[in-house]
Structure formats: structure tokens, C-alpha cells
Write a structure and sequence with these properties.
The structure holds two protein chains of two kinds. By secondary structure, chain A is mainly α. Chain A folds into two domains: 3-270, ABC transporter involved in vitamin B12 uptake, BtuC (Orthogonal Bundle); 274-436, Winged helix-like DNA-binding domain superfamily/Winged helix DNA-binding domain (Arc Repressor Mutant, subunit A, Orthogonal Bundle), CATH 1.10.10. Chain A contains 18 helices and three strands. Chain A has a three-stranded antiparallel beta sheet. In chain A, β2 and β3 (349-352) form a beta hairpin. Chain A is elongated, with a radius of gyration of 33 Å. Chain A starts with 9 loop residues before the first helix and ends in a 29-residue tail after the last helix. Mean pLDDT of chain A is 87; it is low at 425-436. By secondary structure, chain B is an alpha/beta fold. Chain B has a single domain, classed as Rossmann fold, CATH 3.40.50.300. In chain B, strands 6-7-8-3-9-10 form a six-stranded mixed beta sheet, sandwiched between helices. In chain B, β4 and β5 (66-67) form a beta hairpin. The model of chain B has no long low-confidence stretch (mean pLDDT 89). The chains are: A mainly alpha, B alpha/beta. The A-B interface holds A 34, 36, 154-155, 157-158, 160-161, 164-168, 170-175, 215, 218-221, 223-224 and B 48, 51-53, 69, 72-73, 75-77, 79, 83-85, 88-91, 94, 98, 101-102, 106-107, 109, 134, 136, 150, 154.
Chain lengths: 436, 250
């Protein structure tokens, strides 16, 4: 009845298989990653090997249903033994998983080596070969994947809640044990679906990598499910196409590396959790701090002159910041770009714009208030407070400042006797820029 | 009126080691009860075993006169904040909506009615403006408020809260206390695991003094006295601990 879905050509079948396994593993992978049981996927996938061997031996016509059933059974048995080891001993899950994974895989290999005639196609299951997938395999994959999709669609909320907060789920009256068991069933099925295309050794990558990439991209679970399925499908398709065009290239590694490529791209460019975005945020912050420090220097020079002038020459600024004129020129350009200062006509000095004044006063105020707070309220020595205030001044918000002022009873001088500038609206007229 | 909660000879053990012995309490409806005791006294365990989150080794629990299973929908549970992974890709609204899942059953989908209830609950704890935030981008106090909103959205009659005051700011603590008192006024019964003895006598009207067994239970004015507090906090109950150790070795 599903035959209308099955493409006629071999490469069509391969592509279809890749799409199915990508979608199935992508969806289930989201739960695997969020539950932090990535290693469990690996253990289950290795544990299915004896089942595959049994299927190949006991089904003379290589009925995929028989192979699927044996493989799933072996996978579930492996998962069950892991649970049993955890509940009856003090061993933690990673240890139990390690033992089960190796034992099942080793027994599978040993059993296969004694029945080489009956298990000719076992390499396809070890490293994956989409080319070996025929119509009956595909029919099996379609049924299993559909089952998986429908179950995840219907039980998405309970499955998510059990993964998020098991105790609360119990309190709601959810059948927590049943849901956990269902999760492991689904996990095993998705492993088995992907088995022939990706292979025992690498199938866990399809459970983890697409979901991990999706997790870096979004904070919404629904979106994560979609993205992960899409990434899974894309990697599967890429793997199928590449391994079809290069004969003899095992599909599993190609699919795995395609998934890794997707992950690598996301790792760098993800807007919030990506590396580039983080780098950009850090650079932006550094630049802002640098701008603000230059603003403050300008203010301090003006203050030193008793606010007699409104212009500060670049040479004085360079002296104050102990830097070369070139560097200062660059910093001033950044300040101009942000509308914080204006150049004089000869471009040899700068004066603060209205916004520049406001920000400079805020910064100096933040700095001096914080110093005062540290000396008065936190019992710091007077000569210990400057460095701390240098950092804090850039991040104090207006609410904290109001609180500080209140706690310090609206002070006028900092611990070193310098005046704390008052709020911009109350400052003397002379502080405002007078444009030439 | 049937008591909101009744436990009889409730006993719990972890890995064969008994941690809670034969607790009998009977909590009348509309009371605000604090559970206090030293670290390791089994405060959280008491709540978890009432909820069936950890299995009890003996005794029984009745909620509004019936076994817990039959009245589970009338009980709201607020687990410890650290018990979940706050990096989970869910929003404040998603978490509040979880409170409505119980009445929806396994296959139900939250609709308008549920969203309204979740919004009201978030509003009550002052978290409505944060509805669309991912829960990891919240302060500890805000996270606790979201947990409370989830419980409120359950619309239960009896609430069990595990350390709701841990790691929250003073403003949140005050807000939670006000909320608890409002809940009591509207006839709800609330049990709260609390670690600070000082404030316990101000916040609650009844106290359960716990140290592996029930040391005392009653109105604050009856049990908040030196003798009983000494008994609760005055070191481990050596014989009980030793027997527990031996039981674990068997």
C-alpha cells in the first residue's frame, strides 16, 4: 500500500532513505540532547549489532522486518541492562553504558565471524550503505518513521515535560515510567531506521549532531524540533548524493561529516549562542569601554582647568591617556561617529556634544559614587577603590545609581575630595556645549 | 471538614537507609504550614514522599480524605529550583502552561482557556511581562516566581513547596510570603519546606519540626519554644542514625 511512495531508481531509494532517517533521528535527537543521554544513543546503536547478526542468520530471505525486530530487541535489551546496572549497584550511567556498549558490540562481531556465509551484508550495517537499501527495506523504514513522527507529534508535551521536570510530571499524575520507556523505544526505533544507511558505529552522530546544531540556534522547543529534522534531512541527503557519486565510499561517514559541517557552520554563525556572535559582543563591549574612557579623560582635563574652556586638544588628550597622537586621533574619530564629540575646525582639538557631556558626567559620577560606596559602606581603603570603579563605572544602571545616592545620602564629594557631577538636568549652564 | 492532608506512619528509605520514620500529621484545610529542621532531616523527602516522587517504605497518605491517586488533581507541587535544567529551550509562558497539563491529559493541547489561566498566574507573581523570555535569562528570584506561577495555574487546593525561598532576593521573598498568605485566605492549604528558623515563626501559622522523625507539630505558639527546637536541632538522633547505618549494611 505504500508502494506509491517508493521511488523506482536506486538513487531515488537512497535519497528517500536518507530523508527518512534524517527526519526521524533529528526529531528524537532533540530529546536525547536535552535529556543529556547522548551516550545512551551510542550504547543502543552498538547494542543492536548482535540483533542484526541474528536477523541475517535466521532470516534466509533477509526479511527487513525480521532484521528490524531483532535489532530493536537487542537495542532495548542493552538499554534495559544499563538501567538494571544503575539501579542495583552504585555505578553511574556513563560506566554502565560503557560496559554494555562494548559487550554487545564485541558479541555481535564474534557471532558474525563464526557465521560469515550467512552474514555477507554485515558491513552495510556496520558502516552504512544507502545503495544496499531495496524496496522492502524502504517500506519498513517508512512505516517506522511514520510511527515515530506520529508519536512525537501526539506526545510532544508530555515527553518534553518528563525530560524537563520529572518530579513535577509525577505530581501531575503522568505515567512517568511509561513515558520514559516510550522514549527509549522511540530512540531504539530511530537507531534501527538509520542503521542500514549510517551504520552501527556512527548512527549516534545523527541523534546528536543535528539536534545540537538546532539547540545552538534557538530557545524554542518547537523550532528546535523543526531545525533539527531539517539538518538531519540535509545531512542525510548530502551523504546519499556524495556516496552515490563516489563508488565504494561508505555512506555513514559521509552523512556524519555532513552533519558535522552543518554543526560547524552553526557553531560559528549562530546569532546568540555562536562563537562569532560572542566575539562580536566582546569586541563591541571593549570598544564601548574604550570610548567611554576617552570621554572621561576629556572631562577630567576640562575639570582640571576648572571648566574654563570647552575644547581639549588632541595633544593634551594623548598625554592624559599616555598614548600616541595617532591612537588618540582614531579614538576621537570613533567618538565623532557616535556623536559624542565634535572636532574644532582645524581638527586639532575636540569638544563634547550634548550627549557626550551627559555620558561623560554619568561615567565620572558612577566612578566616584562607587568609590565612595566602597570606602564608606564596604570598608575598602581609599587607595584600593580606583581599579574596581574603573570597571564598574561602565555597567552601573540608573536604578543602582539612585539606590547608591540614597544609601550615601546624596553626597557631593568622592573619597579623594573631587566633586561628584550631579544629574545632567541640574548641572550648571556652563557645562552645556556652546557651538561655535 | 476532612483534613487537607493526613499522613500515617509515613516511612521513607534511600538505598535501604531509612531517612524518615513514621511521620503522622493531620493538616486542616486553609492552613499555612512550615516544615523546618536541620540539613538532612528529611524535609524535602517528606514532601516528595507525600507526592509519590520518592517511594515510601511504609505508612499511608490521604489527601482530602482519599488516597493521593484519587485526588492528585487537587494537589500542586513546586519542586526545588535546582532540580531542573534552566537552559531548556522553553519560555516563561511554556512553564506556566505546564501547570494546566494535568487537567488536559496526555494528548490534550492547551488552548485559549489554558493560556488565559497561565497568564493570570504569571500576572499574580509579576512575571507576565517576561512571558516570552527563555527561562535561563531570568534571575533566581524570577525563576522561583515562574515555578510558583506554574503551581498557581494548576488551580489546586493543596500546595507542597520545596524550598521556595532558597536563592531569591528580598523583594521576591516578600512577594512570595504575601502570595502564600493570600492563598491561605482563599481557603488553600500550603506546606512549605523552609530552611530559616527565624522567619519561619513569622511566615507560617503551623510548624512541622522534623529530624528524621516528627519532633513536634502544631500551631507556631505551641511548638516554637526552646525545648522543642533544641530537640529538633540538637544534633543527630544517634540511635536512629546508627540503626539506619546498620540497616544499610545488611
Amino acid at each position: 500500500m505504500l508502494d506509491f511512495l517508493i521511488p523506482g531508481s536506486g538513487s531515488g531509494k537512497a535519497l528517500m532513505a536518507a530523508i527518512l532517517l534524517g527526519a526521524g533521528c533529528g526529531l528524537l535527537g532533540c530529546f536525547v540532547v536535552l535529556r543529556r543521554v547522548a551516550l545512551m544513543g551510542d550504547a543502543v546503536s552498538h547494542a543492536v549489532l548482535p540483533g542484526v547478526v541474528a536477523g541475517l542468520i535466521y532470516s534466509s530471505d533477509r526479511n527487513p522486518a525480521v532484521i528490524f525486530a531483532f535489532a530493536a530487541l537487542a537495542g532495548l535489551l542493552g538499554a534495559g541492562i544499563v538501567r538494571l546496572m544503575m539501579t542495583t549497584t552504585r555505578l553511574k550511567s556513563d560506566t554502565a553504558l560503557g560496559i554494555v556498549l562494548a559487550t554487545f558490540f564485541a558479541s555481535g562481531i564474534m557471532w558474525q565471524s563464526r557465521n560469515q556465509q550467512d552474514t555477507v551484508g554485515v558491513m552495510n550495517f556496520l558502516f552504512g550503505n544507502v545503495g544496499s537499501i531495496d524496496a522492502s527495506d524502504l517500506r519498513m523504514m517508512i512505516v517506522t518513521t511514520l510511527m515515530l513522527l506520529v508519536t512525537v507529534f501526539l506526545l510532544k508535551r508530555p515527553l518534553l515535560l518528563v525530560s524537563f521536570d520529572e518530579g513535577f510530571s509525577r505530581g501531575l499524575g503522568y505515567p512517568v515510567r511509561l513515558l520514559n520507556a516510550l522514549f527509549y523505544f522511540l530512540l531504539t526505533f530511530s537507531v534501527v531506521v538509520a542503521l542500514q544507511a549510517v551504520g552501527v558505529v556512527l548512527v549516534s552522530a545523527m541523534l546528536i549532531t543535528p539536534a545540537a546544531a538546532a539547540y545552538l540556534l534557538t530557545d524554542r522547543f518547537n523550532k528546535m524540533l523543526w531545525l533539527s529534522a531539517i539538518f538531519g534531512v540535509l545531512s542525510g541527503m548530502a551523504g546519499a548524493l556524495v556516496s552515490a557519486s563516489y563508488n565504494d565510499m561508505p555512506t555513514g561517514p559521509v552523512i556524519t561529516l555532513s552533519a558535522t559541517l552543518v554543526f560547524a557552520i552553526v557553531y560559528f554563525v549562530a546569532p546568540r549562542h555562536g562563537v562569532l556572535a560572542k566575539l562580536l559582543r566582546v569586541t563591541n563591549r571593549k570598544n564601548r569601554v574604550r570610548r567611554e574612557n576617552t570621554l572621561k579623560s576629556i572631562y577630567q582635563i576640562l575639570e582640571g582647568e576648572g571648566f574654563a574652556h570647552s575644547e581639549v586638544s588632541l595633544i593634551m588628550l594623548a598625554e592624559k591617556q599616555r598614548n600616541t597622537e595617532d591612537v588618540i586621533r582614531r579614538r576621537c574619530r570613533a567618538l565623532v561617529r557616535h556623536g559624542l564629540v565634535d572636532y574644532s575646525p582645524d581638527k586639532l582639538s575636540v569638544q563634547l556634544t550634548e550627549t557626550g557631556w551627559k555620558r561623560a558626567m554619568e561615567l565620572v559620577r558612577n566612578h566616584r559614587l562607587w568609590e565612595l560606596y566602597l570606602t564608606n559602606e564596604a570598608d575598602y581603603a581609599e587607595d584600593h577603590v580606583h581599579d574596581d570603579a574603573e570597571k564598574i563605572e561602565h555597567i552601573l544602571g540608573s536604578a543602582v545609581i539612585r539606590q547608591l545616592e540614597q544609601d550615601l545620602d546624596f553626597p557631593e564629594l568622592d573619597p579623594h575630595g573631587k566633586p561628584i557631577p550631579q544629574l545632567p538636568q541640574s548641572h550648571p549652564q556652563q557645562f552645556l556645549t556652546t557651538k561655535p | 471538614m476532612v483534613p487537607a492532608l493526613e499522613t500515617h506512619d509515613l516511612t521513607v528509605s534511600y538505598h535501604k537507609r531509612p531517612v524518615l520514620y513514621g511521620v503522622d500529621v493531620e493538616i486542616p484545610q486553609g492552613s499555612l504550614v512550615g516544615i523546618v529542621g536541620p540539613n538532612g532531616a528529611g524535609k524535602s523527602t517528606l514532601i516528595k514522599s507525600i507526592m509519590g516522587v520518592v517511594p515510601s517504605a511504609g505508612g499511608w497518605v490521604k489527601v482530602f480524605g482519599k488516597p493521593l491517586k484519587e485526588n492528585l488533581h487537587r494537589v500542586g507541587y513546586v519542586p526545588q529550583r535546582e532540580s531542573v535544567d534552566w537552559d531548556f529551550p522553553v519560555t516563561v509562558m511554556d512553564v506556566a502552561l505546564m501547570g494546566t497539563y494535568g487537567k488536559l491529559g496526555l494528548f490534550g493541547r492547551p488552548g485559549k482557556k489554558e493560556r488565559l489561566r497561565a497568564s493570570e498566574a504569571l500576572d499574580k507573581v509579576g512575571m507576565l511581562p517576561y512571558s516570552n523570555r527563555q527561562i535561563g535569562n531570568l534571575s533566581g528570584g524570577q525563576q522561583q516566581r515562574v515555578f510558583l506561577a506554574r503551581a498557581l495555574a494548576q488551580d489546586s487546593d493543596l500546595y507542597l513547596m520545596d524550598e521556595p525561598f532558597v536563592g531569591v532576593d528580598a523583594a521576591t521573598e516578600a512577594a512570595i510570603v504575601t502570595l502564600l498568605q493570600e492563598m491561605r485566605k482563599s481557603g488553600k492549604t500550603v506546606l512549605v519546606v523552609h530552611h530559616d528558623l527565624q522567619s519561619a515563626s513569622e511566615y507560617f501559622d503551623r510548624l512541622i519540626l522534623l529530624n528524621m522523625r516528627l519532633v513536634a507539630y502544631g500551631k507556631v505558639e505551641d511548638v516554637y519554644n526552646n525545648e522543642l527546637l533544641q530537640k529538633t536541632y540538637g544534633g543527630r538522633l544517634t540511635i536512629l542514625s546508627e540503626v539506619a547505618d546498620q540497616a544499610a549494611k545488611m
